[in-house]
Design a protein that fits this description.
20% strand; binds flavin mononucleotide; alpha+beta; disordered N terminus; NADH Oxidase; four-stranded antiparallel sheet; 247 residues
Length: 247
């Protein structure tokens, strides 16, 4: 580590240069200088348009190819997800990555058991009507076909080795945000996913042998779409429908 002390050179704080970044201490806590990307307004507009247009192409896909994905891509996607904001920076999430065929098969069997019960009576008529245009049913072959399943667990609290519990804050919101980042990163990598919620999902805790402080949040198959992949022709709400402006 390169560590250059420039104490008292720039201000009253101790400022040092670590890995090319300035660091100072306030009330005993380290701070680093936020380096703004400094985009000019015209470029900012262009970037906001192209990011929107790219994200608007994202779709939930249910027909996957079994084509393999480089593990490093999945690692980077998870790194990105973990940059999401979280209550008191607790990062209360665990991403379980399953590529083992036997485990994927077991997850499919358990998920389909629950989904069959849901479609055969647990879901209301209204719910089934809302799902009808999506063409979903209890069968989930993508759970075995997609090369990776990422199962997001929320960590309701942290468990010390001595059994002491530390609380996490705004766990639901934080993990929802991290999953949003995850889905965006999957799309940016040219891959597809589906936000899947086999309900109830408790079987995932058992199958993946997760500790008692973790609860399954969402299950996302990740990979390439099948060669002949179709998705429902959806309309997204307009800006006027989703925003209210107070000027
Ligand atoms: C919290 C949540 C749970 C979902 N659960 C399922 C699911 O279990 N099965 C499924 O096929 N799609 C599921 N979806 C996907 C939605 O149906 C999909 O996002 C929606 O139809 C909009 O399509 P789009 O993602 O292509 O924009 C879920 C989405 C969300 C956000």
């Amino acid at each position: 580590m390169v560590k250059i002390n420039v104490k008292n050179c720039l201000c009253s704080f101790t400022i040092q240069l670590i890995h090319g970044m300035f660091q100072k201490f306030k009330d005993g806590f380290p701070y680093v200088q936020y380096l703004s990307p400094l985009v000019d307004p015209e470029k900012s507009l262009q970037q906001s348009i192209s990011f929107y247009q790219n994200m608007n192409q994202r779709r939930s896909v249910r027909e996957f190819s079994d084509r393999m994905v480089d593990q490093s891509v999945i690692e980077n996607i998870i790194r990105t997800a973990s940059t999401a904001p979280s209550g008191a920076h607790k990062q209360p999430w665990t991403f379980c990555v399953v590529s083992n065929p036997a485990l994927k098969q077991q997850i499919r069997i358990e998920a389909e058991k629950e989904e069959k019960k849901s479609y055969d009576g647990r879901m209301s008529k209204e719910w089934l009507n809302d799902l009808a245009p999506l063409g979903t049913d209890w069968q989930k072959p993508f759970l075995e076909i997609a090369p990776y399943l990422i199962i997001v667990f929320k960590r309701t609290y942290e468990l010390e080795k001595d059994g002491h519990k530390h609380q996490n804050y705004y766990v639901q919101e934080s993990v929802g945000l991290a999953t949003g980042f995850l889905i965006s990163a999957i799309h940016q990598a040219g891959l597809v996913t589906l936000t899947h919620t086999p309900s109830p999902m408790n079987f995932l805790t058992k199958v993946l042998n997760r500790p008692e402080n973790e609860k399954p949040f969402l299950l996302l198959p990740v990979g390439y779409p099948s060669d002949d992949c179709w998705v429902t022709d959806l309309r997204r709400k307009s800006l006027d429908e989703v925003s209210v402006w107070y000027q």
